[in-house]
Amino acid sequence: MSRTDYFNDPAAPKANRIVPAVTAFVVNDADEILMERRSDNGRWGMPGGVQEIGENIAATVVREVLEETGISVEVVGLVGIFTDPGHVIAFSDGEVRQEFSLCFRAQPVGGDIKVSSESFEVRWIPRADLESLDMSPTTRMRVEEGFRGSPVPRIS
Hints:
By secondary structure, the protein is α/β, with parallel strands linked by helices. It has a single domain (3-142), classed as Alpha-Beta Complex (Nucleoside Triphosphate Pyrophosphohydrolase). Helix content is 16%, strand content 42%. The chain contains two helices and twelve strands. It has helices spanning 57-69, 137-148, and strands at 3-7, 17-18, 21-26, 32-38, 44-45, 48-50, 71-82, 87-91, 96-98, 101-111, 119-126, 154-155. The strands form three sheets. The chain has a five-stranded mixed β-sheet, sandwiched between helices. The mean pLDDT is 95.
């Protein structure tokens, strides 16, 4: 299924759903961030996905990162809560979500990088190389917020 992200775009379709989702800001000891080039839109993003019934939100982070990247993580904090109604995501099946994303800070605790069906590529990206990557404005905002390192989560 493909997706298109709209951010403050007057031509964006109207949202018909809100779904709790997470992204994971994972940085290793070399100050590189774990990123994946997504198979649904070809852009770079942080690993993440939707919460499933029966799991708490931290378990969602751990599961999604492991499934999408092969890296085991431990959740250590919250980067921010992102609920801007100006960010909608249209899926090829007709679903249009208003963003509801919790971005968690996580540290790697094991595993080896692997590519899943949800990505074309998974890599540890040096901070200096981030500017050249094709990513949505909202992903870039989360990455910048994560590297800012504020002890107070961003709420937007």
